[in-house]
Specification:
Its EC number is 3.6.1.22. The chain has eight helices and 15 strands. By secondary structure, the chain is an alpha+beta fold. It has two domains: 164 residues, 3-Layer(aba) Sandwich (Aminopeptidase); 129 residues, Nucleoside Triphosphate Pyrophosphohydrolase. α1 crosses α2 and α1 runs antiparallel to α3.
């Protein structure tokens, strides 16, 4: 079963079957997840919430992890300590709403901060996510401190609640891998659209831009590359995208890779190909690549426009 692992925690999204189990007998879910039975029973309020989540999951089982309850387990005792919820797939604004709860015995130990950081890191792997939103009661100071610790900012309040938002800024690195007049591209497919793009993705913490471009090329199209030079950068909703000119160093055979941080059913990479650069010269990324190549580089790569 898919799960998110942090230093001390394991976090499981409940699919339709496990949500149904949790409503009837929570201990059966703990057993299905391989956890120590805690004796937890859902309150009437929790049961109502779980049924709402179940309806959302039933309406979109492919993306169930974006509409469900996530069980938080403490690794060293293999025991349930709390839950978080993702309440929607990114909406038209790219916003996702989350909720969370932790057992009293485990409060004040940083567990919920750790769980939310892990969950939010996973959510921002989806490029459709632009912000994560949460709300707290005005008198729930501990909950507000958790949100402050993970970097959320209070942006709105009503009579009862404070509303919080976290917008992720993450730089990305891409490579324009060119060989004999062709450029390597990968096709992304989501539920609502599909498009071809240059291999690339988010720069990891502590990673250099060129290193990120090299890693992403190997992950997405299985090419080992050498960076020739920096080409250009553009701003996007979450930060800056950097593009580098590159060549394959160990053969030119493309093979579709995957995102190692996503499960099989969540993969959006569907096809990889060498494409004649003239066929995609109007593409936003490729046109910018062509603008920044020198005449000598175009000649060396056999590019005739």
């Amino acid at each position: 079963m898919f799960s998110i692992n942090t230093e001390r925690l394991k976090i499981f999204p409940l699919d339709k079957a496990n949500l149904q189990l949790s409503i009837s007998d929570f201990s059966k879910v703990e057993g299905a997840l391989g956890l120590t039975i805690s004796g937890k029973k859902l309150s009437d309020r929790e049961t109502k919430v779980y049924k709402i989540r179940l309806e959302a999951v039933e309406s979109n089982q492919i993306n169930y992890s974006w509409n469900t309850v996530w069980v938080i387990a403490l690794k060293d005792i293999n025991r349930f300590i709390g839950t978080s919820m993702i309440k929607n797939y990114p909406d038209e604004k790219g916003e996702v709403i989350i909720g969370y709860s932790i057992k009293k015995a485990y409060r004040g130990k940083g567990f919920m901060t750790e769980a939310l950081n892990g969950l939010i890191k996973w959510m921002f792997l989806n490029t459709e996510v632009k912000a994560v939103v949460a709300d707290t009661l005005k008198d729930n100071i501990p909950s507000q401190r958790v949100l402050q610790k993970i970097g959320m900012i209070n942006y709105f309040e009503d009579e009862e609640c404070l509303w919080w938002r976290l917008t992720m800024k993450r730089n990305r690195a891409f490579s324009a891998i060119i060989h004999d007049g062709k450029i390597a591209m990968v096709k992304h497919e989501r539920s609502d659209n599909s498009f071809w793009t240059l291999p690339g993705g988010g720069v990891e913490e502590g990673e250099g831009l060129e290193d990120a471009a090299i890693r992403e090329a190997e992950e997405e199209v299985n090419l080992k590359i050498t960076i020739i030079r920096y080409l250009f950068s553009t701003e996007y909703t979450k930060g800056t995208e950097y593009c580098f000119l590159a060549i394959p160093t160990k053969g030119c055979e493309l093979k579709l890779g995957c995102d190692p941080e996503l499960e099989d059913h969540e993969q959006i990479l569907k096809e990889a190909a060498w494409i004649d650069i003239n066929e995609v010269r109007e593409d936003k990324q490729v046109s910018k690549v062509l603008e920044t190549l020198t005449d000598e580089e175009k000649k060396a790569f056999n590019i005739v426009l």
